[in-house]
Design a protein that fits this description.
The structure is a homodimer of 294-residue chains. Helix content of chain A is 35%, strand content 25%. The first copy, chain A, has eleven helices and 13 strands. The longest helix of chain A has 15 residues. Chain A is globular. The first copy, chain A, starts with 6 loop residues before the first strand and ends with a helix. Chain B binds a DNA duplex (19 and 19 nucleotides) through loops.
Chain lengths: 294, 294
DNA sequence: GTTCCGCATGAATCGATAG
DNA sequence: ACTATCGATTCATGCGGAA
């Protein structure tokens, strides 16, 4: 039993400079718990990846997803953040073709989460509104994958809050008394009943005030999926690391991480922000529960 | 100049009993401004619609969308409300295949709106969260289509919404008094400056406690798209009428409407709720602006 | 006349049981 | 083995009755 004993854990972050199509071959089979990535969208980041044309996107990505399928654990998950561009007035179909292609490759297309961007970039076009959402495609190797739903529970809606107001007032009084009579347990029971599971729509604002560089997504986005699909000490991989948002999120959550980046500029930037090895002493009940659940 | 003059308009609602695959052939080429519909999803509503299998869905729908392509005006829009269900742990791919099929048929896939359902169906599963969104696929015949963005503008933020509530209460009182002091104009001026264009994410709750029948979507959903893509006097078509939500929305917004329904039960229910012909006298400024914009 | 509370009800999904 | 049906799970909403 580990409760009230200390447990040391070493968390590593590995950075790799190069094209993930090649560098992924270094990684061992079945060694990654979560792949979270946002690859360059078609026709964007032309300077780095040569601007993949929409009609060539699937052909370009399939060899990479083949490697990801190899390195992912059978219980692991691949979350792909992607959104098709508007080309000549139409939404491109390469994302749909990619899903169909990856299914032929052996992936299961388990779910499609929606990231609702609350404060997306303003703009006005005569025949189109602002694009305020992106796809977060969940792929798996098998139908049995790890998912830790309790870690991302959210407070109940306004409806319940107003109706349970009476209960909560009573509860506050007892909490203030702090008489150690076991009311703490009651409080947490009450809290449990006021937390509900989220849906497959994730509401997050985009980060608009970055110091040096612009990240494709806010840190909270990978954090949500890292908490949902991994435990402390697990391995998170981002083959299109960019400014390193996924790795920073993984490190803050005490997960091992591997990042691959083709641009030396980004690589060095992340290198200067990430500690390659961190040591932690776990001794709280939360960690005990996390470890024993595994 | 039409201001302060009266303009009469006759709004018709036409109900057709039968299979839309056949009945659509009656409609004239290029005669519809907006198709808004929510066909039975694959394997759902078995008791009413027989439950089309996912693998047969595209084959079943393509002849219908062919007719819709024929009857739609070149400047018109087709909005398709649909969502794939989970089959054996995976999301079905028939919606993506349908989009690809309709593009081959000649449709332009212009945009995908997200309907975020605030009160989605409850449930808890080990590997999945509740599904809280549906697709609203926008298809067009040509890149030049009518869109009236100003009609769906929203208050800028929460602060604006709360202030708007107070104003609108005041406004109601004044409206009831009918004193013609021009206060309404002031309100609309103030609103204009505090209204912004919406995004492609629509937030609406489903209507779940209907007395007689259940509608697939809240009336506000077709209303939003009817206002966005048509003007008063235009023609709205719903080939899968169901309980008639689209037609009721169209009638309330003074649009002509055509509804096709295969089930006599639903047909008669809508027949009893919808007036076949309504006459309106337009004389307020709002209508003046709408007409002159045309 | 308000506000408050109880209750039924959904385009769902999984896993077990039965043919 | 493969399909068909059933029970359990879960939460925002609006209606109606009560304080």
């Amino acid at each position: 039993m580990l409760y009230n004993h200390g447990v040391y854990m070493e968390i590593k972050a590995e950075l790799i400079l190069g094209d993930c199509k090649d560098k992924l071959k270094r990684l061992e089979d079945n060694s990654v718990d979560l792949v979270f990535t946002s690859p360059p969208y078609a026709d964007s980041r032309k300077n780095t990846y040569g601007g993949i044309k929409p009609e060539e996107y699937v052909e370009w990505f399939i060899p990479i997803s083949e490697q990801l399928l190899r390195v992912l654990k059978p219980t692991g998950t691949f979350v792909l953040n992607i959104k098709e561009k508007v080309v000549d007035g139409e939404r491109s179909t390469y994302v749909m073709e990619l899903i169909l292609g990856m299914r032929r490759q052996g992936w299961l297309w388990t779910e499609e989460f929606i990231w609702h961007k609350k404060n997306c970039y303003p703009g006005k076009w005569p025949n189109r509104f602002r694009d305020a959402w992106e796809r977060l495609l969940q792929f798996n190797k098998s139908k049995k994958f790890d998912m830790y739903q309790e870690t991302v529970m959210v407070p109940m809606g306004d409806w319940a809050r107003s109706r349970l107001r009476n209960l909560s007032e009573t509860d506050k009084i007892r909490d203030n008394a702090r008489n150690g009579s076991g009311f703490g347990k009651n409080v947490s029971n009450w809290l449990d009943k006021n937390m509900v599971y989220p849906t497959n729509v994730v509401h997050l604002a985009t980060e608009c005030s970055n110091k040096n560089h612009s990240a494709a997504f806010p840190k909270e986005l990978p954090k949500w999926f890292i908490k949902l699909f991994t435990q402390e000490g697990d391995v998170v991989l981002d083959p299109f690391m960019g400014s390193g948002t996924t790795l920073i999120a993984a490190q803050e959550l005490k997960r091992n991480s591997i990042g691959i980046e083709i641009l030396p500029e980004y690589y060095r930037m992340v290198e200067s922000e990430i500690k390659p090895v961190s040591c932690y002493l776990f001794e709280d009940q939360g960690s005990y529960e996390t470890l024993s659940a595994k």
